[in-house]
Amino acid sequence: MDDRRLHGREPLFDTEPPGLASRLVGLRPHQLRSCPYEHDGDVPFVVFAGGRGLGKSALLAEVRAAYQGHTPVALIDGEEPQFAGPPPERPGEVWSPVAQALTTVAEQLAEPVTGARRIGFPRLASGLLAVAAGGWGDRDVPRIRQEAERILLLNDSRSFLDGFAGRWVSKVVAKLIASMSNTGPVVEPIIEATLESFSEGVSPTHRRLRRAAGWYRDYPNAGGNPKLGLILLSGHFRAGGDSRTHAERHLVRALLADLDDAYAGVVQRSRRVGRPVILIDNVQEPAGRGLLECVLRDRADGIRDQVVFFSALRGHSHPALRNAARRTLAEVARTTGWEPGASPSSRALLVSLPPLKPDDTLHIVGAVCRGVDVPPQLPHATHRLTGGSPLGITLLAESARQNLPRGAASLGALLTGDVTVHDEHDGRPAYQELLDRLVPGGRLDELTVLAAAHDRPSALALARDRLPDDFGAAGVLGLEERLAAEGWLSAPGQFVGDPFLRALLLLRLHHLDAGHAQWQAAHRALVDHYGEQGGADAARYRLHHELALGKADFAVAHLRDTFTGTDAGTWLSTLVFIASAPYFHAHDPEGRDFDGGHDHDHRAAVALGRTDAEQRPPQGVDPVLHLRVRRLLHAVWQLTDPLVLPDVKVAERLRFELEQLSNLRPSGTALLWRASRDWPTDALAGRPLRIPGDGDDERGDRG
Predict the structure, then answer these.
(1) To 10 degrees, the CA torsion angle through 616, 622, 628, 632?
(2) What are phi and psi of 36, to 5 degrees?
(3) How far is CA 194 from CA 170, 179, 229, 256, 348, in A?
(4) Which helix (H) or strand (E) holds 19?
(5) Contact 229, 219 (CB under 8 A)
(6) Among 144, 258, 313, 560, which one is most buried in terms of CB atoms within 10 A?
(7) How far apart are CA 690 and CA 670, in angstroms?
């Protein structure tokens, strides 16, 4: 895999042995070398699935780059503004996202490739003209001319540079405009003029146009009359609803039939190596979903085509893909194992994209930061923070390139440091750049507050305390639904399940005001919420938020007092959860903000025992146990913080404290000793701290 390819996506782009793209397209990426087809008859409609930031758009862009110029390729994004609504002055009844997508796709597929000329789309152009004519009743000649020219230019397979296409289009447009009288409907005259223009001449081009125009004789209820077929198509489109969907399905079929024509015959097949490729980003949007459903229904009805569709779905499921075969990217590296069923959705192959691996992160950071002195732990810490998000890794690597030379020394500093992504724009904090891409579309302020919550009840409590009255329970449920729809996986004990997104949102909450008042208010509200409840779980959550406010004494007391009477595994689990509290600024011993420098971290000083002399343990407690638990809590807090680089000295102190504690708990000696061996290594490698006994059978596979 060379430098042009995407890291971690080898199962798609591999050439030897051939990856998924090679086997479906019949061409090796970036090469004019053919490859045997895996599916010679029915071809799966491939849908890459995953949440925001997993690199789906980059993946489709790389597929286009790999095949552009070698085989016909088109790429559209369902979220582009051109698919959101009709252009000015064009009636809505003769426009739809699907029709717009077909025009855009055909314009890209028409481009010539090595060894073969342009592809013409006369069937599609005939249908699109019939649809457009339904909106030409206002006799707006400049607009009519513009719309007709764009559609008619899809017809010709000659290069626009030879002038023939332009002259032919101008001639046909003039005939179409002349066919319209000053009164009455224009659809039928336009269709008559179109069919007449397609029938003129004896050249191979005109023979192809005549054959294409006759294709509409098979439209339902056309009775073998192509003119009637086009009139019915136009009427169904204008009717909207299911009738429009019926018409759109025939327009999609027209595009695919035109592509089949381009590959028909021995000569054409010898000049065109590989299948045409259509790429659809955000296939869940109306433009993409319409194309997806039309193609799947036709393929299920036995209407075959040889187009390779690669698409990107935000999320992990969709009603139109209910019976799709599901695979991971690794599982399709050598074969898809796909067989179509009877339902339309079974014609799709849904491939989930995995996060990147630590080694991928290492290579990306190294490539972006070439020539920059990068701390050795930064790549693995970046992977721990981002969870392998390609977007997160790439943008953090760029921030490292720009901010490490300026003195940044932690991932927190890289997130809050300004990063310039586009030369034409000024830099701004990296976390804001990331959130704009990961949480577009509004409600960022509300989600920022609710990121501190752990479940629906705590989110509702936060909403009541910190959000406007009109947000309420409906707003909380709406954000829950939106997170799921956007592909953000849930996690027990967190309202925002994805750790990377949650860290970014909490960082934004902390920086909403200079004095961190909103940050403190949110955590105090949760302290109160859990303080009203009883039980060990509520205590853990309350202490977690006390610690986020910089108040460690409550957590130390709880862990100290429960050390001997609680199961060792439960005690360690409680320690890890409490110490997962976010920490974005230095605190003094009373929990107040402490101006100790840009990267001052009070936790390391406590963990290493440098503040022990200042401490006066409460009366009646074992001072040795008290200070040991205090050091241990701050060590775990520092080492598991995703925004800092783990401190080697703190990791060694963690090992020592757990060893000493194991001597005090005969019944829990083995678990505490095992943690003393595993936790420092895991922390320095950027792995989560696992409780001994939880999945120990997997200990050998933690790379």
Answers:
(1) -100
(2) -60, 140
(3) 13, 10, 13, 21, 37
(4) none
(5) yes
(6) 313
(7) 15
Residue 68 three-state SS: coil
Give the distance from CA 21 to its chain's centroid. 20
Among candidate residues 90, 93, 109, the one with its CA nearest the CA of residue 101: 109
Answer for the pair 386, 393: CB distance below 8 angstroms, yes or no.
yes
pTM, rounded to two decimals: 0.90
Give the span between the Cα atoms of 472 and 461, in whole angstroms: 10
User: What would the two tokens of residue 619 be?
Assistant: 């009366």
Pairing of strands 348-352, 325-328: parallel
For the chain, 703 residues long, the average pLDDT of each consecutive 10-residue run is 66 92 95 90 95 94 95 97 93 96 97 87 94 86 90 74 63 86 78 84 67 90 95 97 97 96 70 91 97 98 95 94 96 95 96 94 94 93 95 96 93 94 81 94 93 96 95 95 90 94 96 90 96 90 95 96 92 96 69 51 92 90 95 97 93 96 86 95 91 57 36
> Identity (one letter) of the amino acid at 214?
G
Whether 235 contacts 225, CB under 8 Å: no
How is 509-550 classified by DSSP, letter by letter?
A: HHTSSTT-HHHHHHHHHHHHHHHTS-SHHHHHHHHHHHHHTT
Contact 88, 105 (CB under 8 A): no
Of residues 319, 536, 498, 277, the one with CA closest to residue 392: 498
Pull the structure tokens for residue 245. Answer: 């969907």
Alpha-carbon gap, residue 169 to 156, rounded angstroms: 9
